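As a warm-up, study this chain.
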Amino acid sequence: MVFAYARYLSPTWGVVAVLLGGFLFLETLATPFHRQFYVPDPRISFPYTADSVPDARLVVYACVVPCVVIVLATATQYLRSSGDQKQRSVHLASVSCLAFALALGLNGFVTEFIKIKVGRPRPDFLDRCGLSPKSTAPGLYTVVDCTAPYGEKVLQDGFKSFPSGHSSFAWCGMNFLNLWISGHYGLYKGGAGFSAGRLVPLVPALAALHICISRSQDYKHDALDITCGSLLGLAASWWSYHQFFPRVADDNSELPLVPAQQPVLPV
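Now compare it with the structure written out below.
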């Protein structure tokens, strides 16, 4: 039964694997477009600083936290149910994780593809570049004029300003969590009217805003980078969620659109 159910969802997991593989390839092996830059340019003259939200912490916020919340919520539902309800709980967890993985893969691939193709210098680019002492006259320069005082990897990353990857992943993860909590617990059932439960999604939204603002404070992105990255993350999470779940205001918002056509587990 387990293998039959796995085969039932395997085509979509294959799409996720391709998207995540493409993202990792672009992130680790692809060289960004080396756009020419003008000196002096105050927009790219900020100091190079450490990240307030490092990549590892971003992974925790945007990937691990939503997964843990989904697994804990569905596990609690599983323990409190019996018979067919247990099957539905396992199916819900499986479809939720699949939808979330699709959102992350789609967001990561599209964000990194745009970064590589655009090659926009970051606000701290000139510090990363470290122009040669011979290159002091105002004018256009290229990457060959850089001495890379922080290393070649930091220099190449300096051409990946647009859009903000931290912002896109933050909003992708947090908005998906918002949608999932709202749908699973029926926070918007019943139409208009205020209830305290509808404030719960504010917590993930504030976490995403914190990450976005930190990218400006660290001089890694400007407002355009952050805004476009945020919109990408919101779009990827919204689209992926609604491939598997109805609208959060729907009467059956907690039920996946993907039926469990195969027995899930021998429970």
